Amino acid sequence: MRAGVVVALAGCAAALVGITSVLLGPELVLWLNTGAAAAWRTVFIAIVVQGVPFLLLGTLVSAAISAFVPAHVFTRVLPRNPVLAVPVAGAAGVVLPGCECASVPVAGSLMRRGVTPAAALAFLLSAPAINPIVLVATYVAFPASPQMVAARLLASLATSVLMGWLWLTVGRPEWLRLSKGPTGHAPGAGRLEEFRLSLQHDFLHAGGFLVLGSAAAATFNVAVPHSVLSLFSDNPWLSVLMLALLAVVLAVCSEADAFVAASLTGFSPTARLAFMVVGPMVDLKLIALQSGTFSRAFAFRFSSVTWITAVLCSAGVGWWLL
Predict the structure, then answer these.
(1) How many helices (H) does the chain have, and how many strands (E)?
(2) pTM to 2 decimals?
(3) Cβ distance 152 to 273 under 8 Å?
């Protein structure tokens, strides 16, 4: 239902833009292609174009899990003890290339299939942060600092496991309100049809929130002058907090954020590590996706605590290795 509302609002917005374009004519076209409007449009389109392929990848995996993978597979792979299942699920993130956009629908599908939420959340955080593509990209971005790869791996894995264990301790089931998508193969139903329905549901549901999160990130990029960032680079602790906040609002894909971090040469290695650890776990488009998939109450609490945990893990690992 909410996905349909988002699509309807997007259609109304497009119609409004079209009517306004007819009324204002060349003046509107000129305004849209100059100044802040052009910058906002460029950033917004870049984030959406960057995120949609990985969102599609995630929904494809989610639909395949729902339609083709029997539920007993997950109970056999993961330990029955939730405390042990969390680190196993966190470590499993290393085998699935994907962005944070892809991890949300996959985690939702795992929960609907009966996987303990703590393990699914650990996978949600680790998959976009420690998969092979991300680690190779980090190595390429920091050729003179190979220890940055190990630091990113350790800090990201520690954050995902700690958050999974924390959910076991203080998490409440009522915070998770999973959308009623397909939950698995039903007797007498065609698997390809179930795959199609699950893919359609997850992609439309998450896609609308990806657009909303991308718009918020683009607005920040345009509204905050880059000169403000330089005020924090001289203080080692403030620089860590600044880049951790910047990672949230820039919403850079995890396959590309290492190159952005490498370009921030005025900041300390630990601050740049925090940027790469926080980004795949907490950013505006990811918060929007989590709100649509799980609930706003969950997204607010989970993202806030994840941000704090990621900053602390980054600072600790950075102090030790970098």
Answers:
(1) 15, 0
(2) 0.74
(3) yes
